[in-house]
């Protein structure tokens, strides 16, 4: 995983976990990787992953079965989408709108490229 400098690493890992949930790679009620295993996979300090899991647990996306591990919450996908949608609408969309205005990019061009992106990346 390539980390960006402009966002805390634990939040980037939370986005990674959330994406796996949203794309149904990690199903509701499924056990997820331990803190240590995910830290090794992503080559980060286990404390960083622990902070990520604490954040996601506070968001009720995952839950801990003491002594067993972390699991995806039953409604995790809805919670992830709701949180990420609100964050996108508040933080990223205004910057996106500013750029398409300044660069004079039409909504038709955006729609065409969005459709191509979906086809290339998310449709079998």
From TrEMBL:
Asked if the record carries the keyword Transmembrane, the reply is: no
User: What Gene Ontology molecular function terms does this protein carry?
Assistant: DNA binding; DNA-binding transcription factor activity
Start and end residues of each HTH gntR-type domain: 7-75
- Family annotation (PANTHER family): GNTR-FAMILY TRANSCRIPTIONAL REGULATOR, HTH-TYPE TRANSCRIPTIONAL REPRESSOR YTRA
Top-level taxon: Bacteria
Which protein is depicted?
Answer: GntR family transcriptional regulator
Species of provenance: Mucilaginibacter arboris
Task: Tell me one Pfam family matched here.
Answer: GntR
Ordered alphabetically, the record's keywords are: DNA-binding, Transcription, Transcription regulation
**SUPFAM superfamilies on file:** Winged helix' DNA-binding domain
What is this organism's lineage? Bacteria, Pseudomonadati, Bacteroidota, Sphingobacteriia, Sphingobacteriales
């Amino acid at each position: 995983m390539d980390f960006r400098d402009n966002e805390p690493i634990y939040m980037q890992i939370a986005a990674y976990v959330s994406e796996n949930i949203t794309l149904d790679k990690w199903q509701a009620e499924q056990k997820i990787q331990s803190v240590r295993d995910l830290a090794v996979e992503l080559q980060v300090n286990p404390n960083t992953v622990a902070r990520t899991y604490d954040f996601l647990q506070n968001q009720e996306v995952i839950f801990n079965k003491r002594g067993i591990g972390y699991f995806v919450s039953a409604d995790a996908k809805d919670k992830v989408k709701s949180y990420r949608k609100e964050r996108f609408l508040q933080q990223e969309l205004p910057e996106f709108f500013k750029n398409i205005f300044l660069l004079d990019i039409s909504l038709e061009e955006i729609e065409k490229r969005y459709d191509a992106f979906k086809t290339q990346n998310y449709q079998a």
